[in-house]
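Lecture 7 notes: from sequence to structure.
We start with the chain below.
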Amino acid sequence: MNDAHSAFPQPAHATGPALSEHGHMDMSEHVKTWKRFTRLIRWGIAANVVLLVFLAIFRTHG
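Predicted structure tokens for the same chain:
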């Protein structure tokens, strides 16, 4: 009987270090990504607040 996983090719990173292996994470890249993420969240929240204020000011009653 054949192994069920043998038909699937291994990803390129499969031969490198494990993703969860201690000491192999590029922290500068991680911090840069986190800062970009938090900046995006802040701009999203600000845009939603502006939209809600705009809708509250210019609401119409049909």
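Points to note: The chain has a mean pLDDT of 79. Residues 1 and 40 are 51 Å apart (CA to CA).
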